[in-house]
Write a structure and sequence with these properties.
The complex is a heterodimer of chains A (107) and B (122). Chain A is mostly beta strands and 107 residues long. In chain A, 0% of the residues lie in helices and 46% in strands. The chains are: A mainly beta (107), B mainly beta (122).
Chain lengths: 107, 122
């Protein structure tokens, strides 16, 4: 089965840039999506197809991919960005797969 | 307003069965594929099952194959998940989620319900 690997946690001070990574075999051949989940709330799609922001998502959120790693970058981090972020892909053998999630702490 | 509202979760014994429902509103239901995604207490997201627009094609995670059945009633705009042979490890918050784009061109899920809680305990 296909596995996506995320670091359990990332910390960043307000106003700085947070980088959240997602690794997987041949991830360059897959479309990567990113979700934000705040406590007690449903997930929200913040980036789809590697780098596209859905309507209503701030420009501070951006996605990229290089080598075997996809990256979600949050610029000018705010306290309200504190959440768990999940990456997700579709794989031929496993269908939709989520990474384990990265908890973003805003110091 | 685009909305998904799940129901049907409850406390059930191991080996039991239950059916979850997800009522959709605010969009053309039969234009979109639909999914169930669950989250065990304190854990991450796990995709469970998906169904295409017409209900002709269904997909399941290995962990639930043979026990879970996804279906939909496009006339009523309702998605279902039949869960049989419940296990303790099925305890989770079950979300329904709509595909981002119609006709299945992306695997992203753009609309999520708040979820319904299934607890399996003896």
């Amino acid at each position: 089965s296909y596995v996506l690997t995320q670091a359990p946690s990332v910390s960043v001070a307000p106003g700085l840039t947070a980088t959240i990574t997602c690794g997987g075999p041949n991830i360059t051949t897959k479309s990567v999506h990113w979700y934000q989940q705040k406590p007690g709330q449903a997930p929200v799609l913040v980036v789809y197809d590697d780098k596209v922001r859905p309507s209503g998502i701030p420009e501070r959120f951006s996605g990229s991919k290089s080598g075997n790693t996809a990256t979600l970058t949050i610029s000018r981090v705010e306290a309200g960005d504190e959440a768990v972020y999940y990456c997700q892909v579709w794989d031929r053998t496993s269908d939709r797969v989520f990474g384990g999630g990265t908890k973003l702490a805003v110091l | 307003e685009v909305q998904l509202v799940e129901s049907g979760g409850r406390v059930e014994r191991p080996g039991g069965s239950l059916r979850l429902s997800c009522e959709a509103s605010g969009f053309i239901f039969d234009d979109y594929g639909m999914n169930w995604v669950r989250q065990a207490p304190g854990k991450g997201l796990e995709w469970v099952s998906g169904i295409d627009r017409n209900g002709d094609s269904t997909h399941y995670a290995e962990s639930v194959k043979g026990r879970f059945t996804i279906s939909r009633d496009n006339a009523k705009s309702v998605l279902y998940l039949q869960i049989n042979s419940l296990r303790v490890e099925d305890t989770a918050l079950y979300h329904c989620a709509r595909d981002f784009s119609p006709y299945g061109s992306s695997s992203a899920m753009a609309v999520w319900g708040q979820g319904t809680t299934v607890t399996v305990s003896s």
